[in-house]
Specification:
Number of helices: 5
Order of helices and strands: EHHEHEHEEH
Structural class: alpha/beta
Bound molecules: ligand CA2
Helix content: 25-40%
Shape: globular
Strand content: 15-25%
């Protein structure tokens, strides 16, 4: 039995309710169900533990508690992507493979979104592919040993 964490940061609880031009019309609950379903198709023994918070500290506490017993982390850090050295340090310290996902193409938007402080500690970044990015991330992690 192995487990992947699915973490979404600030404001991603609003998905599907506003700004569909950037973030589409799928809700966070839909995304979580789709990732759980895809993981199950790929490997019936693979569990996904979803978590969303609008609070940086709550995300760090969740990662500290759950990452040590998990095989990998899918994270859309929201705007913490561009600013949170605390999140980057936590992801780096925990030493699990991290896939950074963004629904929108952060490189094609405002300048402040172009830089991710998390990217250097992630195995990769997927941006601009909408909800598919989360499914690609789970597929990648499911294919990793351990
Ligand atoms: O494209 C992404 O997934 C982002 O991580 C989303 C973050 C943004 O700060 C990043 O630059 C890129 C923002 C999430 C806000 O989500 C909303 C969803 C619906 C309505 C309003 C905000």
């Amino acid at each position: 039995m192995s487990r992947i964490l699915l973490v979404n940061g600030p404001n991603l609880n609003l998905l599907g309710t506003r700004e569909p031009e950037h973030y589409g019309s799928t809700t966070l609950e839909d995304i979580e169900s789709a990732v759980i379903g895809r993981a199950h198709e790929l490997d019936p023994e693979l569990e996904v533990l979803p978590f969303q918070s609008n609070h940086e500290g709550a995300i760090l506490d969740f990662l500290h508690a759950e990452a040590p017993t998990s095989a990998g982390i899918i994270i859309n850090p929201g705007a913490l992507t561009h600013s949170s050295y605390a999140l980057r340090d936590a992801l780096s310290a925990l030493g699990k493979p991290v896939v950074e996902v963004h629904i929108s193409n952060i490189h094609a938007r405002e300048e402040f979104r172009h830089h991710s402080v998390v990217a250097p500690v992630a195995v990769g970044q997927i941006a601009g592919l909408g909800v598919f990015g989360y499914l690609a991330a789970v597929e990648y992690l499911a294919g990793q040993p351990g």
